[in-house]
Amino acid sequence: MKIPGVRWPWLLGGVLAVLVAAIAGLAFGPVSLPPGGVAVELLDLIPGVNLHSGLSERDAAILLQLRLPRVVLALLAGAMLALAGGCYQGAFRNPLADPYLLGAAAGAGLAVTAVVALRGADLGALPPSVPLAAFAGALIAVALTYLLGVGGRDRSPASLILAGVAVSAFLAAGQTYLMQRNADDIRAIYSWLLGRLATNGWHEVRLLLPYAVVTTVVVLALRRELDVLSVGDDEASGLGLHPQRSRFILIAAASLGTAAAVSVSGLIGFVGIVVPHIVRMLAGGSYRAILPLSMLFGAAFLALADLAGRTFAAPAEIPIGVVTAFVGGPFFVLVLRSAKRVIT
Amino acid sequence: MSAIVVRDLHVTLGKAPILRGVDLTVSAGEWVAVIGPNGAGKSTLLRAIGGLLPSSGAVSLLGTPVERLRRRARARTVATVAQSPVVPPGMSVFDYVLLGRTPFVSLLGRESFADLEAVRALLERLDLTGFGDRELDTLSGGERQRAFLARALAQEPSLLLLDEPTSALDIGHQQEVLELVDTLRRDQGLTVLATMHDLSIAGGYADRLVLLAEGRVVAAGTPREVLTEEILSRFYRAKVRVVDGVDGPLVVPVRSVSADWPSGS
User: In this structure, are B80 and B17 located in the same domain?
Assistant: First the structure.
C-alpha cells in the first residue's frame, strides 16, 4: 500500500548512500584498509555476530578507535544540518532558509566561542552543557533574523536571507572580538570555526547524540505539519492547525540540532541548503519525504566531504567547511536563481 | 436550523473599519452569494465566518459561536477555498487533497487507510483520478480549482465558504465548477456561502444574494429582489440594464443608459 510521504526507492537509496559513504570514509585515509574487511569488521560489532575480518590488530585499532568515531560524527552532523535546513525551509516557507544563512550557526558559534574564551573550556573536551549555550545563541539569532526579515514590508525570500546575513555579520564581529581578547585560544577557535571533525575518541559523538535524537524525534513527528504550513498560515489555520505554535516548535527543534552540530564540528556551511534541495528535486515537494531523506543524504554527503578533505591534500587536512563551501557555494547560486520561480 | 448566523459583526483591520455591523443568516442547505463592489469587505466577511478573524461572538456556526469551537472541530465544520489558494511548489495533487484530512489526523499520527480512501473517492468524484501523482502547479486553472475544492471537501464540512471560486476561470470552466458545487451541495446537504464577482452568474446559482457595500449589508433577498438597476447603479456606480434570463435576471453593462433596451425591473 502507498504510504503518504514514503518514497521507498529513495529511502533505500539513502540508506545505501550512507553505507557506501561510511565504508569509504572508514577504508580510505593515510592508511588504506580493504573496504571488504571494513564491512566485515563493522558487522562483527553487532552483538551476537562473530566474524573475522582479517584486519590486523593495528588496522582494527585505526578503524575502530580513530576513524569510526570521526565517520559517525560526520554522519550525525551531516544528518542534523540537512534536517535543520529542510525544517527551516518548511517552517519559514522559504527555499533559501538554511542554518547558516539564517544566522543560527553564527549564534551558536558565538555562544561556543564565549564559553571557550570566557570560561576557559577546552575545545577538545567541551562540557555537555555547551550545546545548550549554543542552542540559546542559535535561537536568539534566528529570532533576530525573523524579526528583521519578516517583520518588514518586503516579505520576499531574499529579505529574510539578507536579514540573516546582517545578523551573522554582527555575531561574527562579536566572535572576532572575543577571539582577539583571548589570543591564547585563537588558533584552536579558528580551526574549529572553519569546520572540523577532529575527534577525541567518542567524546564529540556522545556530546551530539542526545541532542540529535531530540531534534530528530521532534522534527520527524511534526513533519506532516510542515506540509500543512506550506499552504500558508491562513489556510493552515482553516485546516485546524495552530500555525504559529507549530512553526515555533519546529524552528526551535531545528535550532537545537544546528547548535549541537556547531558545538562539535564548528561552522560547516551549505549542507542545509544543498541536500534538501537535491532531495526535493528527486523525491518531490512533500516534507514528509524530504526530511528523512535529507537526513540520510546529508549524513552521506558530509562523510564523503570529510573523506575528500582528509585525502585531497594529504597529509594536510582541508577544513571540512571549506570542502562543503566549494560544493555548496555554486549550488546556492543555482538555488537563488530558481527561487523566484519556486516561491509564490 | 440556521447554518450560519451573523449578528452585528464588526471587524477592524489595523485602524480601518472593514465590516460595520453585518447581519446575515444562512439556512442549512442554502446557497447564498455575497456580492458587492471591490473593497466592500466580502473576503473579510468570509474569513470572519471561517473563524480566521476575531469576531467577539458575532458569528455562530450550526448554533455554536465560532470562537468556542476548537480548531480541529471548526475545521470539520467549515471549509474555505481562498480566492487564490497557495500552491505549494512540487506537491502532488493527492498529497494536497490529503491535507484536507488534517482535522481528522491525530497530532503526531499519520493518515489512516480511511483517510486515503476518502481522498481517492474525492478525486474520482471531482474527475481528478488521473491527476493524483501530478504536481499541483502543473494543472490548468479549472483542474486546479477542482483540486482546491477537493481539499476543502476532504474536511467533510457542513459549510463550504468559497471566495471568488471562479474569478480565474473562463466561462466554460466557471459553469463546470459552479455546477459541480451545486451538485455536491444537493448530494451532501452542504451549505454554500460564496463571494461572487459576476452578478448574472451569482443570480443564476444562488438561492439568495447579499449585497455588501462599505462594510454593511445594503440589500438582501432573491436574485430578482437584489439585482435591480436602481440598486446596482446606486452601490456599484454602474450603468447596467437588468434583463430576464432563463435562470434569473441578467445584468448587462451598457455604455449609455438612455439606449432603449428592454428593462427587466
Answer: yes
Structural domain of B252: 232-265
Compute CA distances A344 → A85, A161, B146, whole Å: 20, 16, 20
To the nearest whole Å, the CA of B209 is away from the closest chain A CA by: 25
Q: Which residues contact A251 (CB under 8 A, 6 or more apart)?
A: A87, A88, A91, A92, A142
Rounded CA gap, A344 and A93, in Å?
10
Residue A285 to residue B90, Cβ atoms within 8 A: yes
Q: What is the C-alpha separation between A146 and A152, in angstroms, rounded? A: 10
A89 contacts in chain B (CB < 8 Å): none
Identify the contact set of chain B against chain A, taking CB-CB distances under 8 A: 47, 50-52, 71-72, 74-76, 78-80, 82, 85-92, 94-95, 98-100, 102-103, 105, 108, 110-111, 113, 116, 135, 155
Q: Does the distance separating the beta carbons of B86 and A232 come in below 8 Å? A: yes
Nearest to B52 among A4, A227, A237 (CB): A237
**Do B222 and B249 reside in the same domain of the chain?**
no
Residue A148 lies in a domain: yes
For residue A320, give the C-alpha cell.
Answer: 571540512
The CB-side HSE value for B146 (13 A sphere, CA atoms) comes to 24
CATH code, domain carrying B199 = 3.40.50.300
What is the pTM (predicted TM-score) of this model?
0.89
Q: What is the CATH number of the domain that holds A230?
A: 1.10.3470.10
Residue-by-residue pLDDT tens, chain B, 265 positions = 789 999 999 999 888 899 999 999 999 999 999 999 998 999 999 999 999 998 888 999 999 999 999 999 999 999 999 998 999 988 899 999 999 999 999 877 788 899 999 999 999 988 898 999 999 989 998 899 999 999 999 999 999 999 999 887 888 889 988 999 999 999 989 999 999 989 999 999 999 999 999 999 999 999 999 999 999 999 998 889 999 888 889 999 988 755 555 554 4
Residues of A in contact with B13 (CB under 8 A): none
ipTM: 0.88
For residues A95 and A106, give the distance between their C-alpha atoms in angstroms, rounded to a whole number. Answer: 20
Give yes or no: residues B259 and B179 share one domain: no
The answer on B126 and B149 residing in a single domain is yes
Question: From start to end of B41-190, where are the E strands?
Answer: 59-61, 64-65, 78-81, 159-163
Is the same domain home to B174 and B133? yes
- Asked whether residue B116 falls in the same domain as residue B42, the answer is yes
Number of separate domains in chain A: 1
What total of structural domains would you count in chain B?
2
